[in-house]
Amino acid sequence: MLLSYLRGIKCGYARPAGRAGRGRRTAVHARVTNVRIDPDLLEGVVNTVRGTVASSAAEQKGFKGLMMMSDPETGEGLVISLWETKEDLEASEASGYYEEQLGRVASALVDSSVRQVYGVNLLRTESGAEDRTLHLR
Hints:
By secondary structure, the protein is of the alpha+beta class. It has a single domain, classed as Alpha-Beta Plaits. The chain is about 30% helix and about 30% strand. The chain is globular. InterPro entries: ABM_dom (IPR007138), Dimeric_a/b-barrel (IPR011008).
């Protein structure tokens, strides 16, 4: 499912302003939320994220993809959302969207979540015999 969202993202790099030739800037940004979920409630959280959260995310300006991964034994996991620009990501927080989605699963969280933002430099996926390396901008 993530790959289907990412197929529409333009590939390549853009140079950061003021740093010509020194590194690269991405136009795709990831919000990574570290979570610890009660293992007994994990399946319900996955269903909520797969359904309601993913549907709501798809309606947000600049949304490009959503991924959730977890350890079923400990309940530790990551929720990663991809955004076309940092401004789109920040707007999803300023509007209350992010907190609303977190609230949908808050009762299943064991600890408070930790949120970080990253620029996406590279995403490599393999599908059958086809190998794709996407340099995202």
